[in-house]
Amino acid sequence: MYFERFGKQIFARAAPASAGRSLNFPRWLTLRLAALLVLVAVGLLVGAWLLLPPKVIVAPLARGPAVQAVYATGTVEASVTIRIAPQIGGRILELKADEGDQVKTDDVLARLDDRDLRETVAELEARTKYAEQQFQRASRLIQTGATTREKFDQAQADVLAARHALRRAHEQLAFMSLRAPATGTVIRRDGEVGDYIPVNQPVFYVAKGDLPLRISADVDEEDIPLVKRGQIALVRSDAFPSEVFRGEVKDITPKGDPVARSYRVRIELANDTALLVGMTAEVNIVTKEKQDVLLAPTSAVKSGKAWLIRDGRLVPVDVQLGIKARQRTEVSGDIKDDDLIVVDPAHNLHAGKRVRVQMQAQANGSDPAR
């Protein structure tokens, strides 16, 4: 009984193995087959990619105006700025004008502390009065012979010296009032009541009101031969980012700065300009302008040669350059309006080679007109 059960158990365990045999590969062989399949797939993809024509970035040509300009930076200033400073040092006693005020010729803008000078004037007036009395007395005595000629001459010299000293003191007293030398606008004031102002330190800056504002711009010495009087200047300022102002070249300094290697150019602005004195500005002085010319991306032309796409193939052409700007350049030669031009050609391009094209707008995500 026990033997039969034991035999049945053996039979039961052996039966699944003898029912059918499956094909089992070793693990290392399976991994090698999988790696081989991956390599074959990659090789097919790489081969297909290598067989494809290369891709180039192209852009259409455009027609429009071409402008050649000289770039410079400068500062807005008054055409004539008058600096008003004391000729005698003193403390500010009173301020009668402030920034933005309109002033007229001889208006008092400020008064300095003049108490010491007034005392000096009073003393000199007394000395002058006494000297005049002595001179009158000596004049009477000289007529009667009661005094000597020497004493008369001394009295005359004393009265003249006293009068000169008094006049000089009155002039110094007048210097203690700072006056406007011309009609204009106070554009700056440096000083408060109680401040001590030394000699020749400006307190007020007055811009003459009958003259337009201007920009003093520094132009590189390499560009200055292109700049002429009367040229139009386009002006931008960070204070008005969406506006372009127009100006005109009025003066070019005949002597440049040897350190900065630049020349100063003064550009006159319109009377109604919104720019204010002291603002910084970027200036483009228009030196040449053409209308309705063929324009290509500046990076597309190298050493007088450009690459076009015609019938899906590369075609090299020689081009002549005209007005050159940062983004677009005037071109002419064996080139047509409807040509597509390679934007930034590589050095290994070959004539007649078939290529795939991608428009520049798709490559950089921007508007091609910009």
Task: Report a brief summary of the structure.
By secondary structure, the chain is α+β, with helices and mostly antiparallel strands.
Secondary structure blueprint with pairings:
Layout: H1 2-19, H2 27-51, E1 55-60, E2 62-78, E3 81-84, E4 90-95, E5 102-103, E6 108-112, H3 115-144, H4 149-175, E7 177-179, E8 184-189, E9 196-197, E10 204-208, E11 213-220, E12 232-237, E13 240-252, E14 262-269, E15 280-297, E16 305-310, E17 313-324, E18 328-333, E19 340-342, E20 356-359, H5 360-364
Parallel strand pairs: 1-20
Antiparallel strand pairs: 1-19, 2-11, 2-15, 3-10, 4-6, 4-9, 5-8, 6-7, 8-10, 11-14, 12-13, 12-15, 13-14, 15-18, 16-17, 16-19, 17-18
Task: Give an overview of the whole structure.
- The chain has 370 residues and is α+β, with helices and mostly antiparallel strands.
- It is built from five helices and 20 strands.
- It has helices at residues 2-19, 27-51, 115-144, 149-175, 360-364, and strands at residues 55-60, 62-78, 81-84, 90-95, 102-103, 108-112, 177-179, 184-189, 196-197, 204-208, 213-220, 232-237, 240-252, 262-269, 280-297, 305-310, 313-324, 328-333, 340-342, 356-359.
- Strands 2-11-14-13-12-15 form a six-stranded antiparallel beta barrel.
- Helix 3 runs antiparallel to helix 4 (149-175).
- The chain is elongated and about 150 Å long.
- The model is unreliable at 1-20 and 362-370 (pLDDT under 50).
